Amino acid sequence: MPETELANITGSENVTDDAEALGNYAKDFSFVPRIRPSYIVKVNKADKVQELIKWANKTRTPLVPVSSGPPHFRGGTVPGSGGAVIADLSGMKQIMRTDRRNRVAMIEAGVTFSELIPELAKVGLRLNPPLLPRQSKSVIGSALDREPVIMPLYQWDAIDPLSCIEVVFGSGDLFRTGSAAGPGTLEQQWASKQAQSSPMGPGQTDFARVVQGSQGTMGIVTWATVRCEAIPTLQKPFLAGANKLENLTDFIYRLLWLKLGDEILILNNTDLAAILATTPAEYSAIRDSLPQWLLFFCLSGFEYFPEERVKYQEKEMGEAARQFGVAPVNAIAGISAHELLKTLARPSEEPYWKLRYKGACQDIFFLTAMNRAPGFVSIMHDLARQHGYSSLDIGTYIQPMVQGTSCHCEFNLFYDPNNASEVSRVRELYTHAGEAFLNNGAFFSRPYGTMADLVYRRDAETYTALRKVKSIFDPNNIMNPGKLCF
Predict the structure, then answer these.
(1) Which listed residue, of 74, 408, 411, 462, carries a Cα 20 to 30 Å from 45's Cα?
(2) How far apart are CA 10 and CA 59, in angstroms?
(3) Do residues 22 and 64 touch, judged by C-beta distance below 8 A?
């Protein structure tokens, strides 16, 4: 019996086929088809992960790795085929090491943002986080998914802030990447002052890139190192409003070129209201009081001469603002830049910010050049009108990435999950918008669900290459089959 075999691996207390628990994993807030798993297995040790994967290979059982708690939004944790077993890693909570000198933390897969942030603060470090992750979100899960981070100045490559990983591939082989690969054990490396901070390796390989963005289709990561940043001694945040996105983009390019600002991001008034409001009435009041677009950025000073550093940054920022007709201020319509900075430094309050307004949200996101983002905004609003969806309910988040060389463009479609016609409208809009964005040059670097079908259908070479890679690392196709192009 599968239940007995699973219990022999992890203990009977860690295996369940409870109908309600299985039902929770059969769906999420995405539009992927509902498929019920057969079992949920809590795995707390790397050797147990390896045993589970070997068992899955022997029995040809699909495994779906899950490290974050609910709610889930993109369909990656919903089984893509029947008979699957959920490998629940959320109990792997060890913060193995925090290294102030090398600005790196080594953590297990189940460590969340709300757990890691205060531990890093004790040694004077902070994360380069995504925008308001939910309380239950795994730090490793976020990094593996390449979620955009809000401090592009410290993102040197698309893999950042992820560094080294320990992964059990679908073949059952345990592997360590980057400088963690050796020589020697982790303890021996620490004794020689190594910090597992370089993702490249062993040799000239970089297998972390194979795993990152794969949605659990290559293997299961048990621990990883993530790069951190020093906590500033002094911070001076600003807000700048505009009724046209184009009025802010040149100024942002200038800030990034001058290396000014740690946190830099753009939200429209819909998204900012969804973040700050606690009731629907408060949401409408905040949204209607704000300009259409809001740029948030923060100047920072550190241990040495923080006041002098912020002073010269502010002078250069002011010159750029005058050049491009932007007016940075400390508050807009009662929204304080200092309070917003505090909000962005921690996970979202409960309920999660994307669920507060209407109860559900569907995201469409891709990469583009920042000066092309206004064109995609126009496409989104035109399609919304055609589908009878209010443009006032379209949240928009523009995040410069990798030193400003590109940007993450995200549309948040808020809707009532109990309103069948509204659900149908958003589902159709989501599909048609994805097609329109693809036709206009959007790059979907991490497509989910139906969007993955649209993307890989147009790229036969990538499809073929990925399937070859999959056959090497997961020869029996047990790791999250049915996702990406598998």
Answers:
(1) 74
(2) 17
(3) no
